[in-house]
Specification:
about 20% strand; five-stranded antiparallel beta sheet; five-stranded mixed beta sheet; Beta-lactamase; alpha+beta; 2 domains; disordered C terminus
């Protein structure tokens, strides 16, 4: 038995030694494999536990007006963040940190307690670099763990509320949220970079290794807006809103040759640099978002359709007596009293006769009027790409009945925006050519398309000049030293969700262009619910047009074309009996 056991033990010993040798060989092979053959593995694993990538914020592109004046700029700011897991180890230092941050100790403690199991929390964002350095100096002096600083950018708007509805604003993360900031966010944002750093297991920075990708700044965006005209338009619109006790208003200035929007303002407005007390209705760019029935400002387009058919010429007359016209159960009325039983086509525009315009429309048909309105862009997207922009509504009927034909001819039954209204008049001012609209400076203006025959457009220009300059015209729209043209309108406000109209609620409109020697600019004015001196467009909106057009022509160095007219002559003009829309 002893001999048998002695024979087995050497065999077991040899097996054990063999297994140990195999294990040693496997370990040696693994070491050689990791350090010689697959030497990148350990490096990758080490990097995964210690190498980190920190984003390098990209500088957002600047927004300027057409002359290079800054409308939106980005400035560097400091953002402080913390690792609550580290900060909880030094609770006695929380009051010191809170004091440095300008916060109450209770508020900071509550936030840190709530986020104690997290590794990231913002302490404060948007500090000036000096403020950030001051806080970090306190952190360093008191050896407060887990508090770090990073550089970000904050958007600043030098023109404040004057350009708020055009430029818009960005959020706290520098992403566009309204206006041009949103619609051109991809162009302005740029691309963030990357920095490779080495950190220990607690997240402390050990060494800055390298920049793996440089930040690419956003591109500059040059708008078509002229900041001088923007200030002018904003001032006059604001004054008109106050003087007339109005609810709101919009004003648009357009270059008829290039389609550039030179100014676009709304009231009420807001300051994008301080949005704490901002109400939602202040953010609306009403010139592009609010739609309304344009009233008598559509009569020049309807008259264009009549002249284009060849069935009518300016000297033709229409019987308008007694100032009413019955169509079934509807009664069409003229607001202004007519002098005599008949009016020629120019007289229809001067007196803003609904009866006269309706009778012309019955002769040419609703489809002819619809066609002209459609060609000048009503009921269609303007192509500006503005967030929330509305296209309005231009109805088209298979069978044009008298009621639909009449209402369309004097501006009811359709809806437009202030920008669309200005664009339509730009076609009249540009000898019938319509040019695509743009909010970007047009160094190479696009070619227009002929929406209205040139001779017809020129004839309408002369008729609209008479609307302003005739003895019974809208004299409040006159511009000393210049010949201008335009048309007033007064439209009842439709009730939301019903087919009726709100009692004693009106929009006062005036749209015109000048100078008549060579029309360059269109100004469209919309005043919502004036409540003091009256509500007719010739009374409320025409004076705003006069002041804005006068300032525009002078700021743009347009030579006067009516020097023989004196202020005394203007003061002696006949009372505004017509042009009320």
């Amino acid at each position: 038995m002893k001999n048998l056991q002695g024979a087995l033990y050497p065999w077991r010993f040899r097996v054990a030694i063999g297994l140990l040798l195999l294990m040693v060989a496997a370990i040696v092979w693994r070491i050689v494999d990791l350090h010689v053959i697959d030497h990148d593995f350990l490096q990758e694993q080490g990097d995964a536990r210690s190498v980190r990538y920190i984003p390098i914020p990209a500088h957002r592109g600047q927004i300027t007006d057409r002359n290079g004046e800054p409308l939106a700029v980005s400035t560097p700011v400091a953002t402080l963040w913390a690792n609550p897991k580290e900060l909880v180890l030094e609770r006695e230092k929380w009051p010191t940190l809170a004091h440095a941050l300008g916060q109450t100790s209770e508020a900071l403690s509550a936030r840190l307690e709530q986020m104690a199991d997290k590794e990231f929390i913002y302490l404060v964002r948007g500090l000036t670099p000096e403020q950030g350095e001051a806080v970090m100096a306190v952190v360093k002096a008191n050896k407060i763990p887990g508090v770090y600083s990073i550089e970000e950018f904050r958007r600043f708007y030098p023109a404040g509320d004057v350009t708020a509805h055009v430029v818009g604003f960005t959020d706290v993360d520098d992403h566009g949220r309204e206006g041009v900031e949103l619609s051109y966010d991809g162009w302005l944002a740029g691309v963030a970079g990357k920095r490779q750093v080495l950190k220990d297991r607690r997240g402390h920075l050990i060494r800055d290794l390298q920049v793996t990708r440089n930040a690419k700044a956003g591109k500059t965006l040059t708008l078509s807006i002229d900041l001088r005209l923007q200030y002018l338009a904003n001032r006059e619109l604001r004054n008109a809103i106050i003087e007339n006790g109005a609810k709101a208003g919009s004003l648009v200035i357009l270059d008829v040759r290039t389609g550039e929007i030179l100014a676009m303002v709304n009231q009420p407005t807001y300051n994008p640099n301080n949005r704490r007390d901002m109400l939602p209705e202040m953010m609306r760019n009403r010139a592009m978002i609010d739609v309304f029935e344009p009233g008598s400002t559509m009569k020049p387009l309807s008259m264009s359709a009549a002249l284009e058919t060849g069935r009518w010429k300016p000297t033709d007359t229409v019987e308008v007596y007694p100032g009413t016209l019955q169509i079934g159960r509807y009664t069409i009325r003229d607001v202004s009293k007519t002098e005599g039983p008949v009016l020629d086509l120019t007289g229809i525009l001067i007196r803003s006769s609904n009866v006269g315009m309706s009778k012309v429309a019955f002769d040419i048909g609703g489809q002819a009027i619809y066609s002209v309105m459609q060609k000048v862009g009503l009921g269609q997207d303007t192509g500006l790409g503005f967030p929330g922009e509305r296209v309005g509504n231009l109805p088209n009927y298979r069978d044009w009945r008298k009621a639909e034909t009449a209402t369309l001819s004097y501006g009811y039954g359709l809806s437009v925006t202030a920008v669309q209204l200005a664009h339509a008049y730009a076609a009249l001012a540009n000898n019938g050519q319509t040019v695509p609209l743009t909010m970007i400076r047009a160094d190479n203006p696009p070619k227009g398309s002929q929406a209205i025959p040139e001779q017809v457009a020129k004839t309408i220009q002369g008729m609209l000049q008479q609307v302003v300059e005739a003895p019974n015209g809208v004299y409040r729209a006159q511009v000393p030293g210049y010949h201008v043209a335009g048309k007033s309108g007064t439209a009842r406000k439709a009730q939301v969700g019903t087919k009726g109209y709100t009692e004693n609620a009106y929009r006062s409109l005036f749209t015109g262009f000048g100078p008549m020697s060579n029309p360059r600019f269109v100004v469209a004015v919309v005043i919502d619910e004036p409540s003091k001196a009256g509500y007719f467009g010739g009374l409320v909106s025409a004076p705003v047009f006069s002041k804005v057009m006068s300032g525009t022509l002078r700021l743009m160095n347009i030579p006067p074309d009516n020097l023989q007219a004196t202020p005394q002559q203007t003061a002696n003009a006949a009372p505004d009996k017509g042009g009320r829309g």
